[in-house]
Design goal:
It is a single chain. By secondary structure, the chain is an alpha/beta fold. The chain is about 25% helix and about 30% strand. The chain has one domain: P-loop containing nucleotide triphosphate hydrolases (Rossmann fold). The protein is globular, with a radius of gyration of 14 Å.
């Protein structure tokens, strides 16, 4: 398995539009994106910015209770947004058909991917967000390919 790593420093919300464009260029051929980081670090905020850049018109919210939200882009492509924070076992993700979503070729943005680690596809982007003492975010992007 090969791994490419990029590390970025995010100093404020004003950088999200530029960051989203750069990330979508970087991950244009990788449909499954795994967002890792502690509660409140900005995973959902980053996913909202990515969806906006993709042309999603509807309100993007974390699917904490629904497990998955489906959005449509301006060019009628689907984007799936998952939040596995509340699941207790990977079988809950299997029962909802997560593998079919991952195999769809559509963007799948996944919060709390550690809850379903054995279900990760062979190729994915792992985006790890950390908060510094200065309230900056450090985004580490790993592109994993089998």
């Amino acid at each position: 398995m090969s791994e490419d790593v990029t590390v970025l420093r995010i100093r404020g919300l004003g950088q999200l539009e530029e960051l989203s464009s750069a990330l979508l260029e970087l991950g244009r051929n990788v449909p499954v994106w795994l967002f890792d980081g502690p509660m409140g670090v900005g995973k959902t905020t980053l996913i909202k910015a990515l969806c906006e850049k993709l042309g999603v018109q509807e309100k993007v919210t974390s699917p904490t209770f629904a497990l998955v939200n489906e959005y449509e882009t301006a060019d009628r492509k689907l984007v799936y947004h998952f939040d596995f924070y509340r699941i207790n076992h990977e079988t809950e993700a299997l029962d909802m058909g997560v593998e079919e979503y991952f195999d769809s070729g559509n963007y799948c943005f996944v919060e709390w991917p550690g809850k379903i680690e054995s279900l990760w596809p062979q190729t994915y982007l792992l985006l790890s967000l950390d908060l510094t003492l200065e309230q900056e975010r450090i985004l580490t992007i790993r592109e994993m390919n089998a």
